[in-house]
Amino acid sequence: MTATDPPAPRFLPQLACETVPRYTSYPPATGFEADTGAQSWSRWMHALPDNPAVSLYLHIPFCKSMCWYCGCHTTIPNRRDRIERYVEALLLEFDQRAAQLPSGHSVHHVHFGGGSPDMLDTVEFGRILGRIRECFTLAPDAEIAAELDPRGVTPELAASLVENGFNRASLGVQDLSEEVQTLIHRIQPLATVEKAVETLRSAGIPAINLDIMYGLPAQTRERVARTARCAAMLKPDRIALFGYAHVPWFKKHQRAIPEDRLPGAQARFDQMFTASGVLELAGYEPVGFDHFAKPDDPLAIAAREGTLNRNFQGYTDDRYDVLIGLGASAISEAPGGYIQNQPDPALYAQALENKASAMIRGRARNDEERQAGARIERLLCDFRLPADVVDAQDRAALNELNALGLVEDNGEGLTVTPAGRPYVRNIAARLDPAFVTGAQRHSVAV
Ligand code: SF4
Q1: Parallel, antiparallel, or unpaired for β 337-341 and 359-364?
Q2: Which atom of ligand 1 sits closest to the CA of residue 115?
Q3: Which of 177, 196, 210 is nearest to 291 (CA)?
Q4: DSSP single-letter state for residue 9
Q5: Do 308 and 382 contact (CB within 8 A), yes or no?
Q6: Does residue 172 have its Cβ closer than 6 Å to ligand 1?
Q7: Which atom of ligand 1 is found nearest the CA of 74?
Q8: Where does 61-215 show beta strands of DSSP type E?
Q9: Strands across the sheet with 407-409, in order?
Q10: Alpha helices (runs of H) in 8-79, residue ranges in sequence order
Q11: Partners of residue 362 on adjacent β-strands
Q12: pLDDT in tens, 368-404
């Protein structure tokens, strides 16, 4: 640290331990209702502007083995025919959902998430991309990305991804120490990650993202720092730094995590701050509160230009009119609201086989909620809000955080100070009309 560096943000236990929404949607998914489904979606599709920009999210809910920290919708299929049945259902959903779009649409982003999309074989990747190109109008420069488990990356898979037009891959690294990997049931030494990155790059995937974590059992500042250093040495375009959310009442497999080995709130905060420092020293620009990107990566550019957005995958440079979520548990977003598909892969497949819709719940947004959501999104992306969207009630709600030096209100608007950045979700929550402090349905802020 030099004399000109800003001081380290302070650990404020009452804020770091406060449970607040992640604000990947507004209203949050915890407020979705069973009576909003396929009919609402169909209405919202009729109300789309001409030539809408479309993004596709495909959920592949399968993994080879369960990581104990996992917070995703995934299953261990045991039998290959479960994956085959699921792929057939996905293809049916493409037909169903594409038929509702205006012909002038264009798809700019396709994202395969999960689960582990590398559970698909090369033939399945080819069939899925082939059907996407038949059903939707894919822009020539579309970003096609996949989340991959480094242990599942093979030269055959990498070649198939390139052949099918993929141009970005995200690899889960989490932590590189053997003890942590044993406790989270995910053994993947650094050599496995290095090999996966090398395999993808030599096949021709131009952009690589890595995900690392803090707050895992037996993690220390040193271990987190080493993981961040190793991740940066692989020179990915983006690195996401996520805090482990321990919610064993909601994700039963997390009961296998030894709670007495979990770092406390102060240790989590120190780990987060240490990893951020390592990544910034390595030349990565912070993007929002949990992403880092090379200065020439589109995400860093969007952050600098004030065009960064937030969606269910976190921070994104994607600016769509409609996001179509395909597959079990996938969430779709339109100006009218959100809709979620059936989360159980077998029930999802059954719905599509019966020519029914897989949408089971959602939430329409009124104008007030759209405005509240847009304001929270701008705060989380830009760390500031212009004066014309901040009123006296907001200022009163932020009094306490203002006094702590976390926000500044200088007449031109509201700015989150460097000390306030780790607490930006707490700040957003005070501007959220629906937020109730202490609700147990969200994760801790840091
Ligand atoms: S590979 Fe990812 S999605 Fe699968 S169990 Fe592990 S953390 Fe969850």
Answers
A1: antiparallel
A2: 3
A3: 210
A4: P
A5: yes
A6: yes
A7: 3
A8: 106-114, 138-148, 168-174, 207-214
A9: 384-386, 413-416, 407-409
A10: 13-16, 38-46
A11: 33, 339
A12: 999 999 999 999 999 999 999 999 999 999 999 999 9
Q: Does residue 116 have its Cβ closer than 6 Å to ligand 1?
A: yes
CATH code of domain 368-444 = 1.10.10.920
Give CA–CA dist 289/352, Å, rounded.
Answer: 38
The mean of the pLDDT values for the chain is 94
Q: How many helices (H) and strands (E) does the chain have?
A: 15, 19
Pairing of strands 314-316, 322-326: unpaired
Do the beta carbons of residue 209 and residue 239 sit within 8 Å? Answer: yes
* SS3 label, residue 266: helix
Q: Where are the chain's structural domains?
A: 29-364, 368-444
**Ligand 1 close to Cβ of residue 70 (< 6 A):** yes
From the CA of 172, give the closest atom in ligand 1: 2
Q: Which residue shows structure tokens 């957005």?
A: 309
- CATH code assigned to 29-364: 3.20.20
> Sign (positive/negative) of CA torsion 54, 28, 116, 191?
positive
pLDDT at 139 over 50: yes
Over residues 48-55, mean pLDDT? 95
Burial of 160 (0-12, 13-18, 19+ CB in 10 A): buried
Q: Does residue 105 register a pLDDT over 90?
A: yes
- Find out whether the beta carbon of 290 lies less than 6 Å from any atom of ligand 1: no
Amino acid making up residue 137: T
Tell me the pTM: 0.95
Minimum CA distance residue for ligand 1 atom 8: 70
Q: Give Rg (Cα) of the chain.
A: 21
Percent of the chain with pLDDT over 90: 91
Question: Secondary structure of 377-408 in the HEC alphabet?
Answer: HHHHHHCEEEHHHCCHHHHHHCHHHHHCCCEE
